[in-house]
Specification:
heterodimer; A: alpha+beta; Peroxisomal Thiolase, Chain A, domain 1; eight-stranded mixed β-sheet; 6 helices; 8 strands; B: mainly alpha; Non-ribosomal Peptide Synthetase Peptidyl Carrier Protein, Chain A
Chain lengths: 209, 84
């Protein structure tokens, strides 16, 4: 995908502060496995296990669809004990992508059409709702975008995120991949990016997927 | 009535995905919305679905919903009065 607009040259580097990946019933922080359950368990069991293991308390969790649970859990771990007190809600952005959109929930919702359509499923039949759930939880009111891509486009995501740091008042950004397919193959790969210098510069090659 | 109330608690937990709550933790006369169980507008719609699916009752006037769904007990009373 190419960006067709005039843009200022990116003048300042951004840095990856944290990286969380949820995949194959394991949780990885900065590439190291920190939690896992039996690989044969379904996603619902894994999600509840992560929720309980990290003693997360959020009444809405169980009402979320699978994509929102995945994004919520990944963001909870990404932001755990991260001090963002000096950052305004409007300065926090969230830019994510996947390939299945909200298909996992779309199929479940479609099944309810045979009898009575489910309102609780209907509200999750758009992939960007996961961004809404993360935003409500963390008071995020900055730039927000959810893309549907054939596969993760690291070059585009890196360029887009750098651009919003350069051309908006963004000070902190959650970015990455949040995918759950219709047959429940899932992967969350989230990065926390800011201008604060760290060991890892934010660039496409670092957005390993 | 007591049997229906207990049945409703189980059904509400399933319909509304209240996984962290046990039936005996729901007070029959506690408010379902607001400060009580903390249900929201989507939950209200799901309760309407439950009434139709499990009890064959369609809510003709949504404005009556607030009184009908005040508590598990008021819901049970409505079902008893209107079930076909």
């Amino acid at each position: 995908m190419q960006l067709f607009y005039l843009k200022k040259q990116i003048t300042m580097a951004n840095y990856i502060q944290r990286h969380i990946r949820l995949e194959n019933n394991s949780v990885f922080a900065e590439g190291k496995e920190i939690f896992s359950i039996d690989k044969d368990e379904e996603f619902k069991v894994f999600a509840k296990s992560v929720y309980k293991n990290y003693e997360i308390k959020y009444g809405k969790f169980y009402k979320m669809d699978a994509l929102s649970k995945l994004g919520f859990l990944a963001s909870e771990l990404l932001l755990k004990d991260f001090n963002k007190d000096d950052i305004l809600p409007e300065q926090i952005a969230i830019i994510c992508a996947n390939t299945s959109a909200s298909l996992h929930t779309d199929v479940k919702y479609q099944n309810t059409l045979k009898e009575i359509p489910s309102p609780a499923l209907f509200v999750y039949t758009l992939p960007n709702i996961v961004l809404g759930e993360i935003s409500i939880r963390n008071m995020i009111r900055g730039e927000s975008l959810f893309l549907v891509q054939d596969k993760f486009d690291a070059d585009f995501m890196a360029e887009y995120v750098d651009d919003i740091f350069e051309n908006t008042n963004t000070e902190l950004c959650i970015t990455g991949w949040l995918e759950i397919s219709a047959n429940e193959e899932y992967k969350a790969n989230l990065f926390l990016v800011s201008k604060q210098e760290s060991n890892t510069k934010f660039k496409a090659t670092e957005l390993k997927n | 009535m007591d049997e229906l109330i207990e049945k409703l608690k189980v059904q509400l937990i399933a319909q509304l995905s209240l996984e962290d709550i046990e039936p005996d933790e729901i007070d029959s006369e506690e408010a379902l919305f607001g400060d009580g169980l903390g249900l929201d507008s989507i939950d209200a719609l799901e309760i309407i679905v439950l009434l139709e699916k499990e009890y064959g009752i369609k809510l003709d006037n949504p404005k009556d919903g607030q009184d009908i769904m005040h508590s598990v007990k008021s819901l049970a009373e409505f079902i008893t009065a209107n079930q076909k």
